[in-house]
TrEMBL record:
Protein name, per record: tRNA modification GTPase MnmE
Cofactor note: Binds 1 potassium ion per subunit.
Protein residues bound to Mg(2+): 238, 259
A GO molecular-function annotation: GTP binding
Key word Magnesium present: yes
Amino acid sequence: MPPERTPPDAPIFALASGAGRAAIAVMRLTGAGCDAMLRRLCGTLPAPRRATLRGLRHTAGDGTPILLDRALVLWFPGPDSYTGEDSAELHLHAGPAVIAATADALVALGARPAEPGEFTRRAFLNGRLDLVEAEGIADLIDAETEAQRRQALDQADGTLSRLYDGWAARLRIVLAHQEALIDFPDEDLPPAVEQALLDELRSLTREMRTHLDDGGRGERLRRGLLFAIVGAPNVGKSSLLNWLAERDVAIVSPRAGTTRDAIEVRAVLGDVPVTLIDTAGLRETDDEIEAEGVRRALFHVKQADCVIGMFDGDTPPVNLPADAILVRNKIDISPPTTNRPDTQTISVHTGSGLAHLTETLANRARALTAAQAGPPLTRARHRAAIEESAGHLAAALDMHWPEMRGEEMRLAMRALGRLTGAVGVEDLLDTVFSQFCIGK
């Protein structure tokens, strides 16, 4: 016989608060039968959506009732809950023994531990939110800066979903008009019907292309930027990295070639998360290990959102991107002989010019992630779906046969549906919700 499948609304539980020593631990519970479990634990069901202090009791194997904890209990009857199911929260004292005993009691009552993202997955399946909003919640949990928080909260609140749903609604109307032209060719529909249809297709295609042409700002803010510090050996790259990181993360030595592998450190510049990379000094070398470091440095130059080119003479590094930020170091011992307006002058040793350089880097980070008109794209999945939809609309505009045009429009509609989870998303669900923590 095949193994028995767990019902999709079977009760699940998870610790929603973070790990580590704390005063309170929040245990979440959702699924069919939550009300009966709460009655077994609390004696009676608390009033909906009102925190109530209750003693949590469980019966031991010999029939003796055991007091697990005195906790605040909240009851959220479905469908007006996060998941759309009957749900509850137990605000426990955060001792490991309390948490473990409560988890054991819930298992004994028929619940099972939740998988990563399973609460939000149930919310999606029960129509409480769509896939784009669910991804916004995941980003909100991971947000490190205020800018990331604002972007994620807008997405979780449905700003992107409303844009995409609006496109889908307009496309449905246009598709209905196209079907009318196909089904009633002999009804002498006015030419204005087809002209209006084509105009709307062009308008939708333009709006999608404009949305795509955002320079990846939303995606950059979500993942953080990559700033690579490059230059010849001993120009102060590691010292600058330590200054920006506000701690000693790279070894500083007068010996050339000390840094052989890329050193990465996370920082915040202009309210944007930035990964700073100190690279090996760029020079010709017979040392096999140092040569590999140089190769990796050049790789990071290609991958970086911003390149910081450091030097300590009058000649900056060569073969840098046109928008690289040039930094002349060691002005305390070797003042520049020429004034280069495109170059920041600093001394990492004395601190001269570092505040201005930091603000320059923060401004570059802000510029690379600055919001434009309309909500930004935040994921490659969104970009691929909109590119696919816009491609089908462009193909529809080139079609002379009404049936072929209608098919391209249906394909465009399907791509938008996959974006928000309206159609054909089963293969995406595991990928989307596996990014969540256990209690969400």
